[in-house]
Amino acid sequence: MTYAAEAHRVVFLIDNKSFYASVECVARHLNPLKTPLVVMSEQENTNGGLILATSPTAKKRYGLQANVSRQRDLPQDPRLIVVPPRMNLYIKRNLAINAIFQRFTAGGDCWPYSIDESVLDVTRSWRLFGSSPYAVARRIQDTVHRELGLYVTIGIGENPLQAKLALDLFAKHTPDLIGTLSYATFAARIWPITELDSIWSIGARIARRLNRLGVTSVYDLAHLDQAALKAEFGVIGTQLYALAWGIDRTVLSRRHRVKSPSIGNSQVLPRDYATQAEIERVVTEIGQQVAARLRHHHQKAGRVSLSIGFSYAASEEEKRTGFSHSATIPPTNQDAELSAALVRLFRSAWDGQVVRNVAVSTGHLSPDCGEQLNLLEPVRTQLHRSDLNRALDAIRTRFGFTRLVYATSLLQGATAISRAGLVGGHNGGNAYD
DNA sequence: TCTGGGGTCCTAGGACCC
DNA sequence: TCTGGGGTCCTAGGACCC
User: Fold this and answer.
1) Residue A122: CATH number of its domain
2) Nucleotide nearest to A314 (CA to C1')
3) Which of A149, A218, A379, A407 has the largest count of CB atoms under 10 Å?
4) CB A38 within 8 A of CB A56
5) DSSP character string of A85-133
6) Contacts of A234 by beta carbon, 8 Å cutoff, 6+ apart
7) Which bases of strand C have any atom within 7 Å of the beta carbon of a protein residue?
8) Which residues of A does the annotation mark as catalytic?
9) Straight-line distance from CA A144 to C1' B1, in Å?
């Protein structure tokens, strides 16, 4: 194996240390590294509280590991600060952080990966800001800390994969919060790793299958017969092989096109739902929510999918945990059309099982430019429907979602009103400081 | 891991076409 | 209709990420 053909770029993968918890500390004029604080979401369906973030001190002082996710696992200690999430504030801070990153990169070289991670390709720009990539990383850390009070962790690599592994495996565990990987150091630092699922893109399932093939370390993976890997995993096998050798030919400025974009919403219900009317009420409400999001993004969906999760009792009885069905539809972003398609899907597959989880997803998206009329309804009816949805959006944008709701949302089992202020299922909080 | 939520990509089998 | 072959699209399910 030779790396002669590989591009040697300078890539940073930057993540915010305990992001939500740190933002909350700063908002309270507390030191994010020295304050024991957790962010806990307490919704009706979180079964007593879901921990979204834990500050480093809270982890250390109370021995909380990353997988502590429930309120019941928290120690009873008044010194531990427990606060509700403010998702809108975190989104705002994320935008501010990325605005800082933009200053250090050329156009198209900064790519937000999630609410608290971004990838920066500084190959073309790092020399403007310091004597070495490491020095530039320090400078970015200082800038973010000075301007926002937050601490960022940085993985440095010669491609995005190396930067990601450097971040996950090294940067998070060093005092300077910076980790580095290169083609030259990759084998020495990565091959000894035996916890395969600690490596990005390898989950518990793939780790187990690799174990069955006799792979106990990344070294083994790198030296497994490529054909065998391909036979076992298909293209994932090829990917795993590249992973084991630290190869990733992604170039950030060449924007990759998402193959199958989708827009959807889901919810775990606050209790078991047994009656058809109640379940369909929620299916309809989520359909309306997704339709509104499609309109907001100026998209129409040509495909809609409904996933239903049974209650645990029903799952055991059925020997399956639920079902998922989809249908191709004439492209739409109208409440009534989307909801009707979802209810049809539901009725075609539901057989009386008690339900706990409802998920709606839409795909085959196309730009919403103009109205495609169908031949089956009067033109006037179709135009009215579209006007109605537009008016609905305008009123809600101006006065808030709950100022105008469908009457069915007032019936038993409906969840739209109680979830109106949520962002990603958690409290949006106040967007203003 | 007895229910958080929003995404993307891959696979396998079946339908259908020429 | 006792076995053609190559290709595309559809669908449900699985896996992974933050």
Assistant:
1) 3.30.70.270
2) B2
3) A218
4) no
5) --HHHHHHHHHHHHHHHHHTS-TT-EEEEETTEEEEE-TTTGGGT-SSH
6) none
7) 10-18
8) 117
9) 37
Task: Determine which helix (DSSP H) or strand (DSSP E) holds A227, and give its type and residue range.
Answer: helix A226-233
Whole-angstrom Cα distance, residue A300 to residue A294?
A: 6
Bases along strand B below 7 A from a protein CB: 1-12
A40 in Cβ contact with A82 (< 8 Å): yes
What is chain A's pLDDT, residue by residue, as a tens digit (433 residues)?
A: 789 899 999 999 999 999 999 999 999 999 999 999 999 999 988 888 899 999 999 999 988 866 678 888 888 899 999 999 999 999 999 999 999 999 999 989 999 999 999 999 999 999 999 999 999 999 999 999 999 999 999 999 999 999 999 999 999 999 999 999 999 999 999 999 999 999 999 999 999 999 999 999 999 999 999 888 988 999 999 999 999 999 999 999 987 889 999 999 999 999 999 999 999 999 999 999 999 999 999 999 999 999 999 999 999 999 999 999 999 999 999 999 999 999 999 999 999 999 999 999 999 999 998 777 888 889 998 899 999 999 999 999 999 999 999 999 999 999 999 999 999 999 999 754 4
Q: Which two tokens stand for residue A255?
A: 């924007």
- Nucleic strand B within 7 A of Cβ A311: yes
Domain membership of residue A336 (yes or no) is yes
Separation of alpha carbons A148 and A210, rounded Å: 43
248-307 on A, CB < 7 Å from strand B: 256, 258-268, 293
Task: Compute the residue count for chain A.
Answer: 433
Instruction: State which residues form the domain around A21.
Output: 9-180
Of A180, A210, A225, the residue that ends a domain is A180
Distance between the alpha carbon (CA) of A173 and the C1' atom of B2, Å: 33
User: For strand A11-16 and strand A117-121, is the pairing parallel, antiparallel, or unpaired?
Assistant: antiparallel
Residues A282 and A206 in one domain: no
Whether A136 contacts A104, CB under 8 Å: yes
Question: At residue A228, what are phi and psi to the nearest 5 degrees?
Answer: -65, -40
Is the shortest CB-to-strand distance from A409 to strand B under 7 Å? no
Q: How many domains does chain A have?
A: 3
How many of the other CB atoms lie within 10 Å of CB of A348? 10
Report the distance from CA of residue A205 to the C1' of nucleotide C14 in Å, as an integer.
Answer: 10
